[in-house]
Design goal:
8 helices; Nucleotide-diphossugar_trans; 234 residues; Glycosyl transferase family 2; Glycosyltransferase_2; transferase activity; Glyco_trans_2-like; alpha/beta; Spore Coat Polysaccharide Biosynthesis Protein SpsA, Chain A; seven-stranded mixed beta sheet
Length: 234
């Protein structure tokens, strides 16, 4: 049995109300796994919660957004020679009991996505419509189907960690996953998971930014990614 050295990367923006509950559940479920909170310039007491609780964390002095916070965590994972890095929400939506399944998938694939829709229906909300559009764009440009492209629960192997840490504009987004599938021949698998709604804290996305996000991702997947330089590995 191969044991991976795994890091859970937890970007946190104004998550003082939910962070302790999230970390407590994480540690109870997977005590063998390291974790790192990346405080993304929070204006609340997220840093105080980290300090008082003794959590390992990076403290970004300005808000870089999810992409910047994630890449900061990836640079840490790369410099400390982790085999697997998993993006994990600070708001409690992601369930830590699925982490071992993601780790197991990473032994055979470059990227593993915690997917809500491997077999379940997406429903008919505006957000799910956007998910379907992004799914279609990825299918059109890569020939592969990702049922839950906007899932924020993603695992990356050491090769992907190296690429994401050492190249520009490598946020944890569907267009990046699609780009890696094309330019780095990344293999992707979806692992069935169940997620819950956030009960506290402040999301990176509101209704308007969610719409703009879907449009930006679709345009990037269909057009912009073809203008990007091929990834390099340092």
């Amino acid at each position: 049995m191969i044991n991976l050295k795994t890091l859970i990367i937890i970007p946190a923006y104004n998550e003082e109300e939910s962070l302790k509950h999230t970390v407590d559940k994480l540690v109870a479920a997977v005590p063998h796994v390291d974790y790192l909170i990346v405080n993304d310039g929070s204006t609340d007491s997220t840093v105080r919660v980290c300090r008082e609780s003794g959590y390992p964390f990076l403290d970004l002095q300005t808000n870089l957004g999810l992409a910047g916070a994630f890449q900061a965590g990836m640079k840490y994972a790369y410099r400390h020679n982790y085999d697997c890095a998993i993006q994990f929400d600070a708001d409690g939506q992601h369930q830590p009991q699925y982490i071992p399944s993601l780790e197991e998938a990473i032994k055979s694939y470059d990227i593993a996505i915690g997917s809500r829709f491997v077999s379940a229906s997406k429903g008919t909300s505006l957000r799910m419509l956007g998910s379907n559009i992004i799914e279609a764009a990825i299918k059109l440009t890569t020939g592969k189907t990702i049922h839950d492209p906007t899932s924020g629960m993603r695992a990356f192997n050491s090769r992907m960690i190296r690429i994401l840490a050492t190249n520009l504009n490598m946020g944890p987004e569907p267009d990046t996953v699609s780009y890696l599938m094309r330019s780095a021949n990344a293999s992707v698998v979806e692992v069935p998971v169940i997620m819950v709604e956030r009960t506290a804290g402040e999301s990176y996305f509101n209704a308007w930014s969610s719409i703009m996000y879907m449009l930006r991702m679709t345009i990037s997947i269909l057009f912009i990614q073809f203008l990007r330089k091929k990834v390099t590995v340092s």
